[in-house]
Amino acid sequence: MSDTETVPSFAEMPLAPAVIKAVQDVGYETPSPIQAQSIPHLLEGRDLLGLAQTGTGKTAAFALPLLSRVDVKKRHPQILVLAPTRELAIQVAEAFQRYARHMPGFHVLPVYGGQDMRGQLRGLQRGAQVIVGTPGRVMDHLRRGSMKLDDLKAVVLDEADEMLRMGFVDDIEWIMEQTPSERQVALFSATMPRQIRKIADTHLTDPVTVEIKSKTATVDTITQKVCMVSGYHKLDALTRILEVEPFDAMIIFVRTKTATVELAEKLEARGFSAAALNGDMSQALREKVIDRLKKSSLDILIATDVAARGLDVERMSHVVNYDIPYDTEAYVHRIGRTGRAGRQGTAILFATHRERRMLRAIENATRQRIDDMRLPSMRDVRDMRIRQFKEDVTKSLELGDEKLADFRNIVNELMTEGDMSPEDLAAALCFMAQKERPFPDGKEPERQQRQRRERDDRRGDRGERGDRGDRPRRDRREDNEGMVRYRVEVGREQGINPGDLVGAIANESKIPGKNIGHIRLFERCSSIYLPEGMDDSTLSSLKQVKVRNKPLEMSVWVDDGTLREERPRRRRRDGEFRRDRDRRSNSSKSNASRRPRHREEHS
User: In this predicted model, what pLDDT tens digit does every residue of 330-384 receive, in sequence order?
Assistant: First the structure.
């Protein structure tokens, strides 16, 4: 496809209606080059060889067309995706789940090493149309016979050159031999070494080749920073940055149209001049918002990629990627809203530890390292508010005697009538002027202090940006500070274990498993701690999630004392185990005392 050709929108492609609806929910309208060139061929059932860098949008390039051909009435594997790492396998599985949100009965199962095999076996028994896994764990299931590929329609080899580098070539060859001969194959790789070419020649039939040249780069006038922060803390981080970072006008990018409105409302409630810009707005309203931005009656714009296309406002000094984009080209387009015509601009990216892969892809595409940004502390916020207050007072003194004369008379009357000192009166007036925006005490909450210390320790040990070492430890889930306790209507009676609840909630929500807190099982219900700030829509969707064919019916925990005497079965088993161990120990000692002595003498 040449650059002069018109790229069709997703709605114009022959994708399944449910898939198109999900794409629109995400906020996509126009496909990226790899998507525009790959989707038509994969919809036709052709084998495909894709040469593209990470971050070009290739996951959607194969997920959207293959999902359109899935039969949700059949619960056996129809698509197998092989990925080099567990992180990529999880990301790809999440993408499939996101694009299949309007396909009732659809299931995707990630399988990878280091995860409990029992949970994967249960997932395979329940049935999943899409399997995303690392080669080693997929081989384990095939050898066990727990994964059947008899009805497989398509195989995707994602980041094949990375799998080659990690030594998975022989594993891939073995897995491909277990798949039906009549199946579609899509192979994606950033480079094409000889061994990957050999796999393509052996297992792809008359493939279409799609090659995307990396041509993205950013200008030197844009300063790029990354702030590593989890989803439930992003609003607090953004608020601190807005308080401390000096900016003229700012555009904040989110992924969905709903998020533009929600974030704009939250920022306005915190005293910022913000407005949403999305595709649901009429042209007249859109022009009105942009005109307010240009005339400085509006400072912050929250927008989706599509809504901000073509936006050029001279006073735009900052771009914030509140949600990391799905591909590198979108990132370059986003930050291009600032730093224009030689002006200086700043681009701030919010990312989680799980999104480091995309962060590295962005750095490769822009050919610039993105520096780590220190999140402003409460002391920084306090100092900035005091500094701004002093500046406002100083500007008021510059108004001149004519405008301040009446107020001086009032001050003199108050001092005379109330017999108060100038300092007390000034302090009272300052309090009245600033009571809607008080000065924080500058102290971080204890939980945030601890997290900051741990983060600084990790950076000191591994440098500013480690790879695997920066991930929060799993045992942090035992700390329930900043979390809300919920009740779910499944328990030991249904034969569940904590892993079932973690898997169900992590798969059906945006809450990573490492952010799920302490779980306690009872006979007919269970309790689980989840991060505070969970929105109503997420809670509503989790109520319908089923574990062992029973909906969770999740609700906020109310301690009425009815379960206080019931102890979790795990503790009772531990007690029984200790008693059995003591009995065996005593019995062994008794038997030893009755043994013939000559055995010891012969030894």
Answer: 888 888 888 766 678 999 999 988 888 888 888 888 888 898 988 888 777 777 7
Q: How confident is the model at residue 65 (pLDDT cuts 50, 70, 90)?
A: very high
The DSSP symbol for 85 reads S
Lowest mean pLDDT among 43-52, 278-287, 463-472, 522-531: 463-472
Confidence band of 24 (pLDDT split at 50, 70, 90): confident
84/92 Cα distance (integer angstroms): 11
- Give CA–CA dist 540/513, Å, rounded: 19
Q: Cα-atom radius of gyration of the chain, to the nearest Å?
A: 30
Contact 307, 277 (CB under 8 A): yes
The tokens for 458 are 């990790």
Q: CB burial class (10 A; 0-12, 13-18, 19+) of residue 585? A: exposed
Burial of residue 384 (CB within 10 Å: 0-12, 13-18, 19+) is middle
Residue type at position 367:
R
Beta-bridge partners for 48: 186, 208
3-state secondary structure of 55: coil
Average pLDDT over residues 53-65: 85
Residues 224-236 pLDDT 10s:
999 988 766 889 8
Structure token digits, residue 269 = 């409630």
Q: CA 247 to CA 300: how far, in whole Å?
A: 10
Q: What domains sit in the chain, N to C, each tagged with a CATH number? A: 10-211 (3.40.50.300), 222-377 (3.40.50.300), 379-434 (no CATH), 477-583 (3.30.70.330)
* pTM (two decimals): 0.51
Q: What is the rounded distance in angstroms from the CA atom of residue 274 to the CA atom of residue 187?
A: 44
Question: What is the DSSP code (8-state) at residue 13?
Answer: S
Give the long-range contacts of residues 494-501, CB within 8 A, separation 24 or more.
494/547, 494/548, 494/550, 495/548, 496/521, 496/526, 496/547, 496/548, 497/521, 499/116, 499/118, 499/119, 500/119, 500/122, 500/547, 500/548, 501/526, 501/528, 501/547
- How far apart are the C-alpha atoms of 274 and 261, rounded to whole Å? 10
Q: Can you read off the two tokens belonging to residue 550? A: 């029973």
Contact 120, 76 (CB under 8 A): no
> Above 60 in pLDDT, residue 414?
yes
**Polymer length in residues for the chain:** 603
419 pLDDT band, cuts 50/70/90, is confident
Identify whether the C-beta of residue 333 lies closer than 8 Å to the C-beta of residue 365: no
Task: Spell 25-42 as b/e; 16+ CB within 10 A means b.
Answer: bbbbeebbbbbbbbbbbb
- Separation CA 331–CA 349 (nearest Å): 9
Residue 87: count other Cβ atoms within 10 Å of its Cβ: 17
Distance CA 118, CA 139 (A): 16
Q: Which two tokens stand for residue 166?
A: 């990690």
> 3-class SS at 411?
helix
- CA separation for the pair 254, 263 (Å, rounded): 9
Task: Name the band, by pLDDT with cuts 50, 70 and 90, for residue 15.
Answer: very high
Model confidence band, residue 265 (pLDDT cutoffs 50, 70, 90)? very high
